[in-house]
Amino acid sequence: MSLYLGLDSSTQSMKALVIDPDLGKIVASAAVNFGKDLPEYGCPEGVLANPDPLVKHSPPQMWLAALDLVLSRLQATGVAMGDIRAISGDGQQHGSVYLNAQGTKILAGLNPAKTLANQLTPAFSRKTSPIWMDSSTSAECREIEAAVGPRLQTDTGSPAIERFTGPQIRRFFKTSPAEYANTDRIHLVSSFMCSVLIGQHAPIDFGDGAGMNLLNLKTGDWDNAALDATAPGLRDKLPPARPATETAGGLHAYFAKYGLKPGVPVILWTGDNPSSLVGVGASEPGVAVISLGTSDTFFAAMPAMKTDPNGCGHVFGNPTGGCMSLICFKNGSLARERVKEECKVDWTFFEGTALVETKPGNDGNMALSYYVPEITPRVMTPGVRRQGSPDFCSGKAPAAVQVRAALEGQFCSMRLLSEWIGQFKTIRVTGGASRNKGIVQLIADIFQADVQLIAVPDSATLGGAMRAAHAAGKVPLQDLAAKFAAASETITPTTGAKGAFEAPLKAYRKFLADVTK
Ligand code: ADP
Ligand code: XUL
Is the omega angle on the peptide bond into residue 377 within 30 degrees of 0, that is, cis? Predict the structure, then answer.
């Protein structure tokens, strides 16, 4: 039997999934929720509390504790761990982990009698890891942009962006120069978790590496001007950048305690969005993907590299070769959760009542719900922006009106701000909120596209297992996509919805222009 393991180190959880390509079946899965299962780390939503709303860090030990726990839970399912032939995975993008010179030795000598978190604690030169939700680096972004100029966007795929790793590294160098000097290696979450599995420093792949403002996508190497603009001696602190199809190394003997075979190939990890591109079977151009996880993202494989004229979107490496485009909305699921709490309703209300009791356009009641600083469009001051009736604007409208406004605001913004990526007849949706049929129908109506659901909502985790089977087991990606990522259901636009969203889209275009003035 040849099994393949995918792991996903995301914002709020660590997931594991094992596939059997011969049977075309997922044979086991396990998950660890940081808030519920590891409350000792004080991160109910995966992030440490901080008095500054712009600062969002997580403890890297929490990810290590979650890796130990998810593997023991996977083993407890009774799956034949010894038949796992290769492993790959993905991490939340942009987050970074800082190791001192002891890190290399500690990784190599991992002792199965101790936990990963305990053993690696002395290896961190920066106690906490900035993650993608952080927006504290505006000054550093301006400095990097001034130094590199417009070719930062054309060559690395993005202008300088607060959550990207380069600006985060620059801020660390400026605010903690001694700790920066004491840093021997800087990893992304993805390359860090991969390094732990192999007990040595793993490369960073082109998919996740492109989220750093440091990788030249045209040469496939770190960009000297971007490195110089970020921090001194940075090239020596970064692992090499390599294609996601390469093997990082063999599994460290530490993991034999979970029944895994030491030495099985570990394929380079990538970012969660690039991994989802594979896991939803959209690694060839033509189909767009909407991922409704903690963040909402819209992405697609690109036929040719082009950058966002609005300066919000990105180009990343496609883990199967070439490039992918992406826009990310920080006020995704977490904003929907806030609206749900404020309106004292549940997800079934989002699915039915809210959208049945109101009509497209919401009688002109519009909301742009920025509970935290937003990435797309760039809005640094949080707050819900409302337009419409006096009752609605003072937050007194019925719950159904407020829920529709929040959802229409999110998905009209997504439709308008993804125009540079292209228009798509088919969109695949994934992530936790994709199980909400009300949200999915609204997406079909606003985008005027067929929306396909995939049987496996954890597409990033699945993408890791598929990439392992492809790279190490030589299983063709098309076969894997046909077996694991076929559409389970297609939702078509409601008859008559086309005209219904023309005026609201026009109004949201103006609203968005006003809030970003
Ligand atoms: P991540 O991988 O970023 O940790 P997931 O893809 O697991 O996130 O999605 C988690 C989110 O899914 C939760 O924050 C929750 O708000 C949302 N969610 C779960 N079920 C529903 C539902 N029925 N309707 C809408 N949103 C949901
Ligand atoms: C993408 C982004 C988020 C994170 C967390 O650019 O910042 O989607 O990858 O999911």
Answer: yes
> What is the average per-residue pLDDT within 281-305?
94
The CATH class given to the 280-454+486-517 domain equals alpha beta
* Ligand 1 site residues, Cβ closer than 6 angstroms: 10-13, 293-294, 333, 336-337, 347, 350, 431-433, 435-436
Dist CA 103 CA 239 (whole Å)? 13
Any long-range contacts for 145-152 (C-beta under 8 Å, 24+ apart)? 147/225, 147/228, 147/229, 148/223, 148/225, 148/226, 148/229, 151/225, 152/213, 152/226
At 211-251, the pLDDT tens digits run: 999 999 999 999 999 999 999 999 999 999 999 999 999 99
Query: Of 230, 213, 236, nearest to 147 (Cα)?
Result: 230
| pLDDT at 160 (0 to 100) | 97
The ligand minimizing its distance to the Cα of 438 is 1
Question: Phi and psi dihedrals of 362, rounded to 5?
Answer: 55, 35
Domain with CATH 3.30.420.40 in the chain: 3-268, 280-454+486-517
**Rounded Cα–Cα distance for residues 378 and 375 (Å):** 5
Pocket probe for ligand 2: among 132, 270, 276, the residue whose CB has the most ligand atoms within 8 Å is 132
Tokens 């996740």 — which residue? Answer: 208
Token pair for 20: 């059997």
At 327-338, the pLDDT tens digits run: 999 999 989 999
DSSP string, 449-491: SEEEEES-S-HHHHHHHHHHHHHHH---HHHHHHHHS-EEEEE
Taking CA atoms only, the protein residue closest to ligand 2 atom 6 is 328
Ligand sitting nearest the alpha carbon of 459? 1
Amino acid at 158: S
Architecture field, domain 3-268: 2-Layer Sandwich (3.30)
What's the pLDDT score for residue 137?
98
Condensed to tens digits (0 to 9), the pLDDT of residues 106-153 reads: 999 999 999 999 999 999 999 999 999 999 999 999 999 999 999 999
pLDDT band per the 50, 70, 90 thresholds, residue 396 = very high
The token pair that represents 244 in the structure block: 């996601």
* Pick from 470, 355, 359, 457: nearest CA to 2: 470
Four-residue CA torsion sign, 9, 13, 19, 25: negative
- 454 and 504 Cβ atoms separated by less than 8 Å: no
The dihedral over CA atoms of 454, 459, 464, 466, expressed in degrees to the nearest 10, equals 0
In sequence order, what DSSP letters do the residues of 226-284 get, joined into one string?
Answer: HHHHH-TTHHHHSPPEE-TTSEEEEPPGGGGGGTPPTT-EEEPPEEHHHHHHHHTT--S
Whether the predicted pLDDT of 383 surpasses 90? yes
- Strands (E) located in 358-501: 366-370, 383-387, 426-430, 450-454, 487-491
